[in-house]
């Protein structure tokens, strides 16, 4: 099992969600967050250098069984890009997931995902 965390632009959430549904990944969690990833050149404002501040993003978390990892990542990458890819499109982190427990039934592991 893996935990996939994707940080994407807010305007791409619907496209990513539809792409995930197309590959039969239906259970996701999305939340608003702010962040600043890759450094961009500072802007000049009234003669002063102004560094970029934290920008709005969306964090998606998906727990998947190992057979769904590649399809999930490919769906996110394909749907989250702007015009072939630009700075700020986001990042995807794939982490090992030791266990998953469904609270309602007490199931453990892959069947609980």
Main features:
113 residues; alpha+beta; Alpha-Beta Plaits; four-stranded antiparallel β-sheet; 6 strands
CATH architecture of the domain at 9-31 and 59-113: 2-Layer Sandwich
For the biggest β-sheet, the strand order reads: 2-5-1-6
Can you summarize the main beta sheet? 4 strands, antiparallel
Give the number of helices. Answer: 2
Low-confidence stretches: none
Provide structural commentary.
The structure is a single chain. The chain has 113 residues and is an alpha+beta fold. The chain has a domain at 9-31 and 59-113: Alpha-Beta Plaits (2-Layer Sandwich). Helix content is 19%, strand content 33%. The protein is built from 2 helices and 6 strands. The protein has helices spanning 13-22, 69-80; strands spanning 2-8, 29-35, 43-45, 48-50, 55-64, 90-96. The strands form 2 sheets. It has a 4-stranded antiparallel sheet with strand order 2-5-1-6, with helices on one face. It has a two-stranded antiparallel sheet with strand order 3-4. Helix 1 (13-22) packs antiparallel against helix 2 (69-80). 14% of the residues are buried.
In short:
The chain is an alpha+beta fold. Helices cover 19% and strands 33% of the residues.
Secondary structure: elements and pairs:
Layout: E1 2-8, H1 13-22, E2 29-35, E3 43-45, E4 48-50, E5 55-64, H2 69-80, E6 90-96
Antiparallel strand pairs: 1-5, 1-6, 2-5, 3-4
């Amino acid at each position: 099992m893996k935990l996939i965390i994707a940080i994407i632009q807010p305007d791409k959430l619907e496209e990513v969600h539809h792409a995930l549904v197309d590959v039969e990944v239906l259970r996701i969690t999305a939340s608003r967050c702010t962040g600043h990833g890759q450094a961009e050149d500072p802007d000049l404002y009234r003669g002063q250098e102004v560094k970029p501040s934290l920008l709005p993003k969306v964090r998606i978390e998906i727990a998947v069984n190992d057979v769904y990892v590649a399809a999930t990542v490919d769906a996110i990458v394909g749907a989250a890009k702007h015009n072939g890819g630009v700075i700020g499109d986001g990042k995807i982190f794939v982490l090992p997931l030791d266990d998953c427990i469904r609270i309602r039934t007490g199931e453990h592991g892959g069947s609980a995902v």
